[in-house]
Amino acid sequence: MSNNKKIKDGSVKTFGFRSGKSYKMIPAILYYLFAASVVVMSVIGELTHYKFEAQDYILFVFKYVFITVLLFSPLIFLSDYNYVYKLPLFGRKEKTKSLIGMIVVFMICYFMWNIQIYATSDTYKKSVEKYTKQIEREAKERAKKMEKQTEKTTSKKGQTVYSHYDSDGNRVEEVINDNKGTKTVIVYDKKDNKVKSKKVVEYKETKKTDKKKTATPKDETKKKSSEAKKEENTKSSGDEKQATTTKKDSDFNDDKGWSKEN
């Protein structure tokens, strides 16, 4: 029985919908929508921002034919339509051969895509380069604006003021420390830059102290006296040991003399 006869008339033949199971159909729908949106948005983007000469329009169509084939290759080559069974590598519906066929399709489409890039005119290439630099510049500006900017100043009264600005440069908040344990938080309205709310908070400043304490004159005097006492104790203990040794030697000599007399 041929492969064509295995497919019943009226059955769904599109890849991802053949089994009728939702866990296969939902990813297939999402992928096909994604592929279609990529093609449409890319075409609109290039026609809007790039400059074309006559040859570029031909290469443009040529390029998007292969991009469409590449993105929709599962639909084109893995479905159960009659023409698929006449294609090499895909006709017998073997997984290994189908995988090899998909790799070959990818390589061909990628190769033809790159040929189109090198064959375009200088006008097209310059417009692509210009638009790319513009996108990079705009991205850097957006990233810079998104950063929360904080400015630190000191008022005439000696207060430390932290001013916070949003991405558009508007002052949104101000924190004032009077260095005496009180912090004032002022919130501004973005539209008219007027005070929206004001809140006073008490806080305790914690000063970090060094672990190493500086030596005071009293500490030095105590240290010297303790060192002197240690020296005296060492000296006295040494004298005692010497006296004990001398006494033992004298006793030994007395015993020796007494033994000689006897």
Indicate the low-confidence ranges by residue numbers. Answer: 1-8, 255-262
Number of helical regions: 7
The termini sit apart by: 137 Å
Average pLDDT works out at 76
The H/E string reads HHHHHHEEEEEH
Q: Main β-sheet: number of strands, strand sense, barrel status?
A: 5 strands, antiparallel
Describe this structure in words.
The chain is an alpha+beta fold and 262 residues long. It has helices spanning 3-6, 22-49, 54-71, 73-77, 95-119, 122-146, 217-261, and strands at residues 149-154, 160-165, 171-177, 182-188, 195-202. The protein has a 5-stranded antiparallel beta sheet with strand order 1-2-3-4-5, with no helix packed on it. Strand 4 (182-188) and strand 5 form a beta hairpin. The chain is elongated.
Quick structural summary:
The chain is α+β, with helices and mostly antiparallel strands. It contains seven helices and five strands.
Architecture blueprint of SSEs:
Blueprint: H1 3-6, H2 22-49, H3 54-71, H4 73-77, H5 95-119, H6 122-146, E1 149-154, E2 160-165, E3 171-177, E4 182-188, E5 195-202, H7 217-261
Antiparallel strand pairs: 1-2, 2-3, 3-4, 4-5
Helix pairs in contact: 2-3, 3-5
